Amino acid sequence: MAGIFKGATGAFAMTPHKVSVCIMLQIYATPAQITVPFPFSSVAQHNRLGLYLLALTKSCDDILEPKLEDLLNQLRDIGGSLDHWLMDHLTSRLSALSSPDDLFNFFSEMRGILGGSDYGVVDDDQVILDSNSNLGMFLRRCVLAFNLLSFEAVCHLLTNIGIYCKDALSSCSSYELRRLDDSSHNMETLTEYENMDLENFVFERVTEEIEARKKANEKVTFHLHAPKTLSGLVEDLGVPADPQSRLGDKGREHHSNPPCDVLRDIDCESGVFLRTIWQVQGYLMEQADAIEKHGSSFSLNAFELILKQLQKLAPELHRVHYLRYLNSLYHNDYFSALENLHCYFDYCAGTEGFDFIPPASGCNSFGRYEIALLCLGMLHFHFGHPRQALEVLTEAVRVSQQHSNDTCLAYTLAAICHLLSEMGISSTSGILGRSYSPMTNIGTSLSVKQQLFVLLKGSLKRAENLKLKRLVASNHLAMAKFNLTHVQRPLLSFGPKASMKLRTCPINVCKEIRLCSRLIGDFDSESGLMTTEGALSAVWLKNLQKPVGSLVLTQENGSGVNYNSFQFCGQQSSIPGSVLQLVGSSYLLRATAWEIYGSAPLARINALLYATCFADASSSSDAALVHMKLIQHLAISKGYREAFAAFQVAEEKFLSVSKSRMLLLKLQLLHECALHRGHLKLAQQVCEELGVLASPVTGVDMELKTEASLRRARTLLAANQFSQAAAVAQSLFCMCYKYNLQVENATVLLLLAEIHKKSGNAVLGLPYALACLSFCQSLNLDLLKASATLTLAELWLSLGSNHAKRALTLVHEALPLVLGHGGLELRARAFIVEVKCYLSDPSFSVSEEFDIVLDPLQQALEDLQVLEYHELAVEAFYLMAIIYDKLGQHEKREEAAASFRKHITALENPENNEDHLLNML
Fold first, then answer.
1. Measuring CA to CA, how many Å separate 449 from each of 354, 479, 490?
2. Contacts of 771 by beta carbon, 8 Å cutoff, 6+ apart
3. How far is Cα 827 from Cα 842, in angstroms, rounded to an integer?
4. How many angstroms from the chain centroid is the CA of residue 193?
5. 75-82: which pairs have CB atoms within 8 A and are 24 or more residues apart?
6. Does residue 114 sit in helix, strand or coil?
7. How far apart are the first and last CA of the chain?
8. With the CA atoms of 141, 145, 146 and 152 taken in that order, what torsion angle do they form, in degrees rounded to the nearest 10?
9. Mean pLDDT lowest for which of 153-162, 174-183, 475-484, 878-887?
10. Is the dihedral of CA 95, 96, 98, 100 positive or negative?
11. What is the pTM of this model?
12. SS3 content of the chain, % helix, strand, coil (to 5)
């Protein structure tokens, strides 16, 4: 997200909160003691307060300062056995400041805890703050800010300290009030400063200054507007807001008749003071990151109201239009997003913000039209308009070249690559080769896949030349995705490159992912980015009440238990969120890659690593995706009951993104269960629901459309409607081939082989199974290859018993991978096919080697019982009855036959337990 540099308009103003921090600094840096500084009983206790003060001083310029009540709550969390002493000492020292002389004496004492080169000899046990340290710099700024105050301003600060203390005392419990009784007697002496004429005098002076600046045609900085909305900027936001920081309105009755309309709504009693323009800009940047992270779960109306009020009170703050654009974009309001995007570039021409893309030479006359086109193209991409997005982004390439804006050109090329890889575009003829010179030189006769490869290489090289670290990492990630799912074919059909092996290379995929992960080591080398000073510490302080670590697929404890989590390892990292999100995406891609390659343990480990380490920095969509992967793994390896239990937790956690991820997962689980238990009507309804989720626009939501068609064909196959199932599968194969979905092509080919196998046309099924194996070898789809090998073995068995040994060889070839990485269904199927091969072999004697066929069947039935897969269980019990019959064990044969009939009945009458299946969700 774009930010601005911290300007010179930010003044360090003394506030009651800063006075409280100074008091705690005085506690921390006490005079020399015999052991550790009083009142600390251990060095660890003293260091813990130091870490807390370090966080407080770094977050002193946050958009809202905490109340004394919040400060006392934090002291209770970190103080341990000293919490009551620290709270009492802080409140008593604050209430003891009853006159301006007390403040002058207090800040004179503060100079005594600062050390310097000329400080002289100090005792070994004395704590002296280095004047150049973070704590020392903060204390020096406070002393300087106080020395610059006029006498009237000192009196006003004293009044605010009294109000600051009264708010905390009024909200304390009766027990705490009794403890603070002795320190509250001085509050009466502070009330005389509340209605002083000096206060109105200060307001009048500020008003005169505003009027003088207006007459001089000077721009009024935002920190002089001081609207009442600033005191509640985070009050109604449900995403990052702290519920304890909500501000009341009772303080306004003290100033019911202010002398100036501009300052009429100042909430003096709330402890919130005038903010500088860069602080408000930093707050808006933080909210923009929150919108991009949380998506539609971010509060739309509450934040929109705040932005409208900010826009009214500070019309020169054009970034508000961009925030309104983002807010509308992630809530899928196309017209509002488009209107606010146009307003933003109409007012500031894209010159405010966008530090990722610095302005090019000559942009003063043209503005930053290329940035507007880039944003407009991404808007069309977000709303599923691939053709419009590609046209706009191509125009952005032309304008960037015309204005020599190389950085914008690099980002635009990356956006085009993202568009071509995520959306199904069968042809770019007449669009893509018009503006970008490399494509013009090559020609537009290349396929979309080849054009994407050329653009990826060019975008990566340009980003490396411009030293755009984040873009380099993002391009490495895009290249890894391309290498994962596409076989790199030579651009020319002759020459030395024509003989290259047409296979994907997992080594290249891992190399690109590792190059992306290296970003975490040199993220600070990319300049031009503004991070709000103290943002890390502000988040760190808000997380004091949160448990250390991340809860994966477990319900959060909302009982308000106080956790002693004062550890940096459990707090927000100092690495920027965009960097963490990119590095997290690399681990998410690792999990996807190992899923495709067929390594279930490695896929699970990377998904768990992402959910544990990068959940806070990831977007809600990515977090929902990784939970979706973990739940699917549970369903495959542990059964659907475990998956449904985890799904209920994830659905509550990601309720706002249920349409994109959670609803899809729910329908997938429901469809699998329906097919396993023979609920074909329910399975058909699920297929229709999946079809409704996908956008009707061509080339959009290809994953959903492919999933819906695959499950529809499988449902028709389960209903023994072979011709209809084959027609759906063939249509799906044509669509996947058109849009270069090669992994999906392999799955569809295997489905076609399954259809012909069940229909009794083994000869027609063999070419599809062999073609699927060829795709699997080219794309290194090891687990899918094992499944295709099992299907090929069954097809050979269907051709006669003389092919039994060949089929058994194929099964034994696939068994190691199936047993090591396959799920319950695939393992059960492999055992059943192996037994069928043995029984079909004329040379095999059941009576002599019955363990070879009975043990796999029993293991298969155990797995099928967990899945409640009736169709495969029918086949397993049928084979078991045959084996027992050949062994002459008639009682066990009858038991197997009874179980066979039971599962047949369950398949023929699925309505008996359909309600139970629905209740599981």
1. 31, 12, 12
2. 749
3. 25
4. 49
5. 76/562, 77/544, 77/545, 77/562, 77/564, 77/566, 78/48, 78/49, 78/52, 78/544, 78/566, 79/49, 80/45, 80/48, 80/564, 81/41, 82/39, 82/40, 82/41, 82/45
6. strand
7. 38
8. -170
9. 174-183
10. negative
11. 0.71
12. 70, 0, 30
Q: How far is CA 703 from CA 59, 257, 275, 404, in A?
A: 44, 62, 47, 38
Phi and psi, residue 691, nearest 5°: -65, -35
Q: Which residue, among 805, 877, 813, has the nearest Cα to 844 in the 3D structure? A: 805
Distance, in Å, from the CA atom of 566 to the CA atom of 151, rounded to the nearest integer, reads: 40
What are 170-228's pLDDT values in tens digits? 555 443 444 444 444 444 444 444 444 444 544 454 455 445 444 444 433 333 333 33
| Interior/surface letters 291-330, b for 16+ CB within 10 angstroms, e for the rest | bbbbbebbbbebbbebbebbbebbeebbbbbbbbbbbbbb
Do the beta carbons of residue 687 and residue 712 sit within 8 Å? yes
Tokens matching residue 896: 């197997």
- Whole-angstrom distance, CA of residue 747 vs CA of residue 733: 9
- pLDDT classification of 432: cutoffs 50, 70, 90: low
Phi, psi of 31 (to 5 degrees): -65, 180
DSSP H or E run through 130: strand 129-130
485 touches 742 (CB < 8 A): yes
Q: Assess whether the previous peptide bond of 547 is cis (omega < 30° from 0).
A: no
Residue 130, strand partner residues: 115
DSSP secondary structure letter of residue 849: S
Return d(Cα 291, Cα 331) in angstroms, integer.
Answer: 10
Inter-residue contact 72 to 86 (CB < 8 Å): no
Rg of the Cα atoms in the chain: 34
Rounded Cα distance, 509 and 468, in Å: 21
Q: For residue 123, count other CB atoms closer than 10 A to its CB.
A: 10
Question: Residue 258 carries which DSSP code?
Answer: -
Amino acid, single-letter form, for residue 573: S
**At CA 545, angle to CA 541 and CA 551, rounded to 5?**
115
| Cα distances (angstroms) measured from residue 588 to each of 518, 608, 704 | 15, 10, 20
Q: What angle do CA 590, 593, 598 make, to 5 degrees?
A: 125
Q: How far is 102 from 108, CA to CA, in rounded Å?
A: 10
Torsion on CA atoms 178, 183, 184, 186, rounded to nearest 10 = 160
Residue that has been written with the tokens 């490159």 in this structure: 497
Beta-carbon contacts of residue 551 (< 8 Å; ≥ 6 apart):
none
The answer to whether 566 and 48 are in contact (CB under 8 A) is: yes
DSSP strand pairing (129-130 vs 114-115):
parallel
10 Å Cβ neighbour count for 461? 13
Residue 430 exposure: Cα atoms within 13 Å on the Cβ side: 4
Highest-pLDDT range among 215-224, 342-351, 696-705: 696-705
Residue pair 25/129 in contact (Cβ under 8 Å)? The answer is yes
Joined together, the tokens standing for residue 444 give 């537009």
C-alpha 66/C-alpha 88 separation (Å) is: 18
Cβ atoms within 10 Å, residue 86: 20
Measured distance CA(711)–CA(695) in Å, rounded: 17
Distance in angstroms (rounded) separating the CA atoms of residues 837 and 855: 15
d(CA 194, CA 180): 22
Token pair of 647 as six digits: 């799904």
Question: Residue 26: in which H helix or E strand, if any?
Answer: helix 16-28
Instruction: Give the confidence band of 293 by pLDDT, cuts at 50, 70, 90.
Output: confident
Structure tokens that stand for 622 in this block: 């990515």
Residue-wise pLDDT for 221-240, tens only, equals 333 333 333 233 323 333 33
Phi, psi of 558 (to 5 degrees): -100, 20
* DSSP annotation of 316: T
CA distance 820 to 836: 22
